Amino acid sequence: MSLIQNNNQAVIRRLAWRSLKMNRFRTVCTLITIFICTFVMAIVPLINTASIETFYIDFRDEAHGSYIIDTAAQEDSVRNDKRLDTVLTYAEGAPASIDDTHYVQPVYISGNSQTLIFYTLTDGVMPETSSEAAVDAEFAQTAGITVGSQIHLSTVDGFSRSFTVTGLARTQQDKNIPLVYVSASSRGTGGILEGVPTELLVRLTPEAADNFADASDILNQIAGNAHIPADRVSINYMSFENQSMTPTHILLYIFIDLCCLAVGILVIYSIFNISVTARISEFGQMQTIGMTSRQIRRFVSWEALIETAVGTVLGIFFAAVISWAVTGYWSWRYLGITSVLVFVCALGFIMFFLRKPAKKAAGISPLSAYTLTEYADNSAGRHKLTPAGLAKGHFKRERKKSLFTMLSMTIAGTLFLLSASWLCAVDNDAMARQSYFTNTEYRISYIGDSDFFTAGQLIDLQKQNILSEKLINDLYTLPEIAHIDIVRSEIVSFWDGSDYVSDFLCAFTETDYEQFAPYLPQDAPSWQELVDSGSVLFVDSGFGISFDAGESVRLTYTNAQGEQHDTVPLAVTLPIEVYDHYPEYGSFIIPEPVMETMYPGVNTTSHLLVTTKDHQVSKDLDDRVKEITSRYPLTELA
User: How high is the mean pLDDT of the chain?
Assistant: First the structure.
């Protein structure tokens, strides 16, 4: 019968705590190892989730979708649908010059709602007449505009009028050009928004917006009920609730965590194994005073449990703090999921793998402990007991485990050094120059992300004729510039058999067509035949959209006269490898003369690709290119 059988669990716990306090060096080493393992296990899902959340968070307050309408009946139908929580009327004009010094974007918005906040009024009131306007507050501070100021707006279409500033508003939506808010009457005859399409910005009720697939169907149903054509429906998929902790994400995080834990377990196992070997006499003494083998296993397990729990909590805490410091995002929900995930994985696997050291400790008899202790004492008399000697002795006794531990740590260390070396060797500017536009050093485009432009927004920018011959000539004054490629592209919509898809329509020259020769069929039309027939070429980029040569494609696009619909013949289908000889990406490419016919009077240049002599770059050259492009508003340099 055990001498401490009565309430032995409490005694074992106290012994475990006392043992950890007495062997501080071993305890600290084990805690550090567990801390590092759990820190890495927690930081990966936390930073990944936070990165996703911070990316999507800016979109969640935006409209779920928008409809371009033509009639009051369409607007009434949309507004009366009970599945919509918010419906706002919105109209956006082409960029206008304000006092010939700055560019602004005139817009009309019918107001705010609790779920869709477009602006916050900081001073004054919103405009009520066609001669009044409210100005973006941040821009107003830069330009020295206050409530009561007079501003003059003019556009390339010939509009010119003075406005009285009635208010200053902070824009909540992400806009690249400062906004000037005008009244509803500005959409009428002679107003700055005359002829501008009217949009309805909508948000679904929380129940209808539960998931993207159902929400998308509902938005399309509402458009169908209002007789709004499918090509006038835009769904903002990024505004819906993003699930960063889906079952797929959780399984991926568990796999990554177990990989991180695998290396740590070897180290933790070795530390506990060494600890058991070093305390043989202690376990023998425990049996002498009446502790059973089962109680000794519990004693070792309690030590491991305490160290694992403390190390895991510290690892998760510091991972959460560093994740918040790096990303600026904090969520108790995701922290809770990650904490439970890491704690269960770490505790479960560490306790599982430490069963053998616990069993080894429990299997030491008092006689074995005395014999091994006596041998250790005699050895200590002949040889000086040092940490190095203990390490060598353990290595000889546990060759296989020691070699396995060394191998795992060597692999981990090698990967860490390679990763650190690669990160230190990366030149961000060089990487940028070698990715999106491989053989050029600078890319000059209109302000904003062209991937999120609508066809109307892009054409409104191009009508300003800023990416012009004058800018090109100014760039050529730099002796380092070798040549400048002019890329002409527009945004078009087409039916892919199941839905309307928006993509780029890019122009190519006769020289480009000659370089396509390796990918053209033998019966391909000549350059002149393409121009005469007004044909387009389709590039099969492998995204599930396909067309065959000889088909006709109906394109919807916007030129200076407004929205257009045109059916064009498709002459040739090309493989994606054609982009190796072409500076732009788009599903359709078209001869430059045909592009000019579709977009009369518009400079269809979307960006310029600037190449330097011998691909040289320097901080001085960067500054001089920036100085030139800064003279041209609405442009950005990459």
Answer: 80
